[in-house]
Design goal:
Number of helices: 5
Number of strands: 5
Helix content: 40-55%
Radius of gyration: 15 Å
Distance between the termini: 54 Å
Length: 156
Protein backbone atom coordinates (compact mmCIF):
# COMPACT_ATOMS: atom_id res chain seq x y z
CA UNK A 1 0.00 0.00 0.00
CA UNK A 2 1.46 3.33 -1.04
CA UNK A 3 1.57 6.29 1.28
CA UNK A 4 -0.49 9.26 0.24
CA UNK A 5 -0.14 12.77 1.49
CA UNK A 6 -3.11 15.08 1.77
CA UNK A 7 -2.68 18.75 1.13
CA UNK A 8 -4.02 20.87 3.93
CA UNK A 9 -3.08 24.20 2.40
CA UNK A 10 -4.98 25.43 -0.65
CA UNK A 11 -2.45 28.08 -1.65
CA UNK A 12 0.87 27.23 -3.13
CA UNK A 13 4.39 28.55 -2.88
CA UNK A 14 6.62 28.94 -5.85
CA UNK A 15 9.66 26.71 -6.24
CA UNK A 16 11.82 29.73 -7.13
CA UNK A 17 13.15 31.05 -3.82
CA UNK A 18 16.94 31.64 -3.90
CA UNK A 19 17.68 35.01 -5.45
CA UNK A 20 14.01 35.72 -6.10
CA UNK A 21 13.17 39.06 -7.69
CA UNK A 22 10.32 39.49 -5.24
CA UNK A 23 7.30 37.66 -3.89
CA UNK A 24 3.97 38.07 -5.66
CA UNK A 25 0.58 37.00 -4.34
CA UNK A 26 -1.60 36.12 -7.34
CA UNK A 27 -5.34 36.20 -6.59
CA UNK A 28 -7.74 34.83 -9.20
CA UNK A 29 -10.62 32.35 -9.01
CA UNK A 30 -9.71 30.87 -12.42
CA UNK A 31 -7.13 28.12 -11.91
CA UNK A 32 -5.83 28.38 -15.49
CA UNK A 33 -5.26 32.14 -15.21
CA UNK A 34 -3.59 31.72 -11.79
CA UNK A 35 -1.26 29.12 -13.24
CA UNK A 36 -0.51 31.22 -16.33
CA UNK A 37 0.41 34.24 -14.21
CA UNK A 38 2.41 32.06 -11.79
CA UNK A 39 4.47 30.36 -14.50
CA UNK A 40 5.25 33.60 -16.33
CA UNK A 41 6.40 35.32 -13.14
CA UNK A 42 8.43 32.31 -11.98
CA UNK A 43 10.23 32.22 -15.31
CA UNK A 44 11.40 35.77 -14.57
CA UNK A 45 12.67 34.88 -11.09
CA UNK A 46 9.71 35.89 -8.93
CA UNK A 47 8.50 33.79 -6.04
CA UNK A 48 4.74 33.27 -6.42
CA UNK A 49 2.01 32.42 -3.93
CA UNK A 50 -1.56 31.95 -5.15
CA UNK A 51 -5.00 32.45 -3.64
CA UNK A 52 -8.40 31.50 -5.07
CA UNK A 53 -10.26 34.68 -4.12
CA UNK A 54 -10.10 37.87 -2.08
CA UNK A 55 -11.14 36.22 1.18
CA UNK A 56 -8.31 33.70 0.87
CA UNK A 57 -5.91 36.52 0.01
CA UNK A 58 -6.80 38.33 3.23
CA UNK A 59 -6.36 35.07 5.18
CA UNK A 60 -2.79 34.53 3.98
CA UNK A 61 -1.36 37.97 3.14
CA UNK A 62 0.29 38.44 6.55
CA UNK A 63 1.85 34.97 6.47
CA UNK A 64 3.36 35.26 2.99
CA UNK A 65 4.36 38.96 3.12
CA UNK A 66 4.23 39.62 -0.64
CA UNK A 67 5.95 42.52 -2.37
CA UNK A 68 3.07 42.86 -4.86
CA UNK A 69 -0.48 41.49 -5.15
CA UNK A 70 -2.25 40.89 -8.45
CA UNK A 71 -6.04 40.80 -8.19
CA UNK A 72 -8.77 39.65 -10.50
CA UNK A 73 -11.97 41.70 -10.16
CA UNK A 74 -14.79 39.15 -10.39
CA UNK A 75 -14.29 36.46 -7.74
CA UNK A 76 -16.56 34.60 -5.31
CA UNK A 77 -16.78 35.56 -1.62
CA UNK A 78 -14.80 38.80 -1.99
CA UNK A 79 -14.07 40.57 -5.27
CA UNK A 80 -10.92 42.43 -6.21
CA UNK A 81 -12.25 45.87 -5.25
CA UNK A 82 -13.38 44.70 -1.82
CA UNK A 83 -10.03 43.00 -1.33
CA UNK A 84 -8.13 46.13 -2.35
CA UNK A 85 -10.24 48.28 -0.01
CA UNK A 86 -9.61 45.95 2.93
CA UNK A 87 -5.88 45.80 2.19
CA UNK A 88 -5.76 49.61 2.08
CA UNK A 89 -7.70 49.85 5.38
CA UNK A 90 -5.17 47.62 7.19
CA UNK A 91 -2.08 49.57 8.37
CA UNK A 92 0.10 46.50 7.73
CA UNK A 93 -0.88 46.27 4.04
CA UNK A 94 -2.10 49.76 3.12
CA UNK A 95 1.06 50.56 1.15
CA UNK A 96 1.42 47.19 -0.57
CA UNK A 97 1.44 47.61 -4.38
CA UNK A 98 -1.73 46.25 -5.99
CA UNK A 99 -2.33 45.45 -9.65
CA UNK A 100 -5.71 44.58 -11.13
CA UNK A 101 -5.49 41.87 -13.81
CA UNK A 102 -8.94 41.84 -15.39
CA UNK A 103 -10.95 43.03 -18.38
CA UNK A 104 -10.17 46.60 -17.24
CA UNK A 105 -13.39 48.23 -18.36
CA UNK A 106 -13.78 51.94 -17.65
CA UNK A 107 -15.84 51.05 -14.57
CA UNK A 108 -13.15 48.65 -13.31
CA UNK A 109 -10.41 51.25 -13.74
CA UNK A 110 -12.43 53.95 -11.96
CA UNK A 111 -13.46 51.59 -9.13
CA UNK A 112 -9.88 50.33 -8.88
CA UNK A 113 -8.46 53.83 -8.59
CA UNK A 114 -11.02 54.59 -5.89
CA UNK A 115 -10.01 51.41 -4.03
CA UNK A 116 -6.33 52.40 -4.21
CA UNK A 117 -5.06 50.10 -6.96
CA UNK A 118 -1.63 51.04 -8.35
CA UNK A 119 -1.68 49.41 -11.81
CA UNK A 120 -4.00 47.73 -14.29
CA UNK A 121 -3.38 44.94 -16.78
CA UNK A 122 -6.13 44.00 -19.23
CA UNK A 123 -6.98 40.35 -19.93
CA UNK A 124 -5.97 38.84 -22.24
CA UNK A 125 -2.49 40.11 -21.45
CA UNK A 126 0.92 39.68 -22.95
CA UNK A 127 3.19 37.78 -20.54
CA UNK A 128 5.98 40.34 -21.07
CA UNK A 129 3.62 43.15 -20.04
CA UNK A 130 2.62 41.23 -16.89
CA UNK A 131 6.28 40.91 -15.94
CA UNK A 132 6.91 44.61 -16.67
CA UNK A 133 4.01 45.73 -14.48
CA UNK A 134 4.99 43.49 -11.57
CA UNK A 135 8.68 44.33 -11.83
CA UNK A 136 7.90 48.06 -11.91
CA UNK A 137 5.77 47.76 -8.77
CA UNK A 138 8.44 45.74 -6.92
CA UNK A 139 11.16 48.21 -7.92
CA UNK A 140 9.05 51.19 -6.86
CA UNK A 141 8.34 49.53 -3.51
CA UNK A 142 12.06 48.82 -3.02
CA UNK A 143 13.00 52.44 -3.85
CA UNK A 144 10.46 53.81 -1.41
CA UNK A 145 11.56 51.44 1.33
CA UNK A 146 15.19 52.51 0.83
CA UNK A 147 14.13 56.13 1.14
CA UNK A 148 12.02 55.33 4.21
CA UNK A 149 8.77 56.30 2.53
CA UNK A 150 5.73 54.05 2.31
CA UNK A 151 5.53 51.70 -0.70
CA UNK A 152 2.72 51.63 -3.24
CA UNK A 153 0.04 54.21 -3.96
CA UNK A 154 1.93 55.94 -6.75
CA UNK A 155 1.33 56.17 -10.42
CA UNK A 156 1.91 52.85 -12.20
Amino acid sequence: MAKTRTRELRWTYSRVVPGASGRVLVVDDNKVIRQLIKVNLELEGFEVVTANDGAECLDIVHRVCPDVITLDVVMPRLDGFGTAAQLRADPRTRDLPLAIVSACTQYEVEAGIEAGVDAFLAKPFEPAELVRVVRRLVERKDRRERKGAPAGRGRG
